[in-house]
Amino acid sequence: MSTLGDAHLPVDEAPRPSRLAWSQLSVSYAKRPRTVRRAPTSTSTTTQSPTESTLPPSTADTSQAPQSGNGEGATETDAPTDVQLPQRTRKWKFALSNQSGYVDHGEVLFVYGHSGSGKTTLLRALASRLRRGVSGSIQYNGASISALDWERRARLIDEWPVLHPRLTVRETLEFADRFARGGIGTDANASRRARVQRMLDFFGLDAEADRRIGPNAGVGDLEMRVAIAVELLGAPQVLLLDNPTAFMDPCTAVSVMKSIIMVARETSTIVICTV
């Protein structure tokens, strides 16, 4: 298991006091009407009298033809149809209801709750990933910001981070740094290698730098550390982690939690983590 190193994370500038606050945050969605599939049904006629049943077809009484309704002497077969049950009122469900809170720079907020309590919904709302049904206010340093600007400031790491399986750990970090900062040339490449090396040293990934992540790696200590390092290369001001210790043994989970706390202290980043 990897351990944290003594190196410091690369910081471009001195940290500035910041606060992320949300007030009366709610996420709602309309309940869809129930639709059921009605099976084919048939209605049989009553038993005919002995006189009518013994007559040949040519001499039978044809005055009472089969009816299309539900009367006697009719056989009705209904084709399967979709039946939409009527709703008395339009019901609304709330994944979140009037949630308020704040986090200062350099702090880690742990959100506890059982499955389905709305932890992931809270992170997605704070990361501006939800486009509908969101009400309330989200402010950074006391001011509201646009969704486009907020996407550059905040980073969300899902429970199952997506990493390229054929790249090594070092190649993954170099590609993330190139994508986040850009730049070409000898000086840019030297700076990039220095930043990546500091990330490897801080997260204790130097011994695993040339190891491929693999297509069936799953989510473990290595993958979660790499995912956090990838996002930190973009210098985010807010880092949101959705259950980063899922499917981990206790020792590995403690190691990942220590790295998350150290990230907040070293970079003065606002960190919100669900558990």
Question: How would you explain this protein's 3D organization?
Answer:
By secondary structure, the protein is α/β, with parallel strands linked by helices. Helix content is 29%, strand content 22%. It has 7 helices and 11 strands. The strands form 4 sheets. Strands 7-11-10-9 form a 4-stranded parallel sheet, with helices on both faces. β10, α7 and β11 form a beta-alpha-beta unit. α4 crosses α5 and α4 packs parallel to α6. It is globular, with a radius of gyration of 31 Å. About 5% of the residues have low confidence.
Task: List the keywords.
11 strands; four-stranded parallel sheet; alpha/beta; 7 helices; 275 residues
Largest beta sheet: strand ordering? 7-11-10-9
The percentage helix is 25-40%
The low-confidence parts are: 50-55, 68-75
Principal-axes shape call: globular
| Contiguous helical run count | 7
- The proportion of strand residues reads 15-25%
**What is the rounded distance between the termini?**
21 Å
Radius of gyration: 31 Å
Structural class determined from secondary elements = alpha/beta
Q: What is the element string, with H for helices and E for strands?
A: EEEHEEEEHEHEHHHEHE
Mean pLDDT: 77
The largest β sheet comes out as: 4 strands, parallel
Q: Tally of extended strands?
A: 11
Put the structure in a nutshell.
About 30% of the residues lie in helices and about 20% in strands.
Would you spell out the secondary-structure blueprint of this structure?
Blueprint: E1 19-30, E2 35-38, E3 42-43, H1 50-54, E4 76-77, E5 81-84, E6 92-104, E7 108-111, H2 119-126, E8 134-140, H3 147-153, E9 154-157, H4 169-181, H5 186-202, H6 221-232, E10 238-241, H7 250-267, E11 270-274
Parallel strand pairs: 7-11, 9-10, 10-11
Antiparallel strand pairs: 1-6, 1-8, 2-5, 3-4
